[in-house]
Design goal:
Elements: H1 7-15, H2 19-26, H3 39-52, H4 57-69, H5 74-83, H6 85-88, H7 90-103, H8 108-112
């Protein structure tokens, strides 16, 4: 992979779907690569991507566990969901809120009964 800091090369390679870089990125979660962001920030970004992609409940559980282990607070995790509202729209945020809540150990549906 290109050295960190050479963002233009990364963007060019991603724009043309450079298979070597994409494969490396897909395997990045299983390696000890150096990142330019701290583990907490990376975990919150992964959470945001899971929300944007409307991930499955199991995916939410995985990213929430990772975020908590990286030092994110429950308030920061919920704030990440809220911050996406202008980008993904309220329908996506409302749809993901119960999945995120369950991953945090809170059953919204049961609380509403």
């Amino acid at each position: 992979m290109a050295k960190m800091g050479d963002y233009k090369e990364h963007l060019r390679r991603l724009a043309v779907h450079d298979d070597a870089l994409v494969s490396e990125l897909l395997g990045a979660q299983n390696t000890s690569k150096k990142s330019t962001v701290d583990a907490r920030t990376e975990a919150l970004v992964r959470l945001a991507a899971t929300i944007a992609a409307d991930g499955a409940p199991a995916s939410f559980q995985c990213v929430v566990d990772h975020a908590l282990a990286a030092g994110a607070t429950t308030d920061e995790i919920v704030a990440t969901l809220e911050a996406l509202t202008p980008v993904t729209g309220s329908v996506r945020v409302v749809g993901c809120a119960p999945k995120l809540a369950l991953a945090l150990g809170y059953d919204v549906d049961a609380a509403l009964e």
